[in-house]
Amino acid sequence: MRRMLPEGLLYQAKKLRFCLLLLPTLVTACISPVQYGDIPHANYVENERCRPGIQSSEVLSDKPYFAVTSRLPDCRTDQIALLNQRSDIVRYGRFGAPEEREITDAKGKAKMQKVIPFALNNDQQWWDDLAAETKKHDGRILLYVHGFKETFFTSARDSTQIARLTGLDIPVVHYSWPSQGEFLKYAADETNMYYNERQFRSFLTRLAQQPWTKEIILVAHSLGVRLAIPAIEYVDRNSSNADSSNISNIILASPDVDRQDFERDIAETVLTMRRVNNDRRITVYVSAKDRALGLSYNFHGYPRLGRPDCFNPFEAASLREQGYPERCYAAKTKYDTEPEKSGLTIIDTTAVSRGQSGHSDYLRNALACSDFAAVVNGTESKASKRKDTRLRHVFELVPDPDGAELDDLAVCRRKSD
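The structure assignment produced for this chain is given below.
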């Protein structure tokens, strides 16, 4: 009779086998260095297109889409491309929604391809244009910081989707750092993200301190959260506005952040009682089906904020005994005096997770998209699809068993992508 291993040991055995099978791939791909390429980087930027003068900015959309990037641009042709290599200079530009264009490849063969229209702007002209657009819209700005495995095309596309989904007619600023756009380049993405910390915090400081900036809605996804939160802390410490309250609505989607670090340091500094009472709040979207963050958990050794894994087996056992799902979330900040408002809200999308990785539910599932849009618009109190959990600051999104199945593409407005 075949002897069965205990469930815990069986899981560990399967996990070890998976790691051993994956090891050759990790060694050759995940840990391989980023290649410099066959062209000197100086050649990409020597054309004057990379140094535009003050002039009327090329507007590429009827929507106010602005880009800030630390990617190395390729200015050798009329169509400027943003590469996956990093630059030590932050550049500014405008972009548009995805559109079909006829592209000629290296062999001279023409084909239709979706592209993101993009043009670089003079720095001062860019800031003047952003100021003019922001003043038209009561000083409100939406700032999006993408995550791991993105190109400029995919992340700019997501920015335009967020604009359509939320219906906000305000400037959208997309910060694009040099993610490699490949699943097996996580280590390189993490390195580039940390390299960008100084650049992003300088940009956010300047944006937050403009007299015309009244409210910043900051959306950060995945690894981009590790850029966003320290930058907010930096602005809080150095702002002439003692509360930095114009960075008010912070949304963290599938955050690839150490959960204990968030509990111990980040939440306590960013969500002080004074700032919470001035309407600063953080909404976090998490999923137990997020495979990308499951791999990140294994890679880093500790649970991520965006995936409610239980690190403490005794806590997991206690939840099981009480009949609760084995899901552990970031604890809410404890104050000596409780603020008048609630600063931290966690939305669990496990029951509605979509896609192969479950890593972008806020843009792929109808219920999550609707909830996300409500949070961006400040109408989350009307998000009736939320279900209470054992924790007052944690809610679940669950399908209505008696309701018709929602059309994810229609609700999330991805059909035009």
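Interim note for the steering committee: The longest strand covers residues 81-95. Residues 43-412 form one domain.
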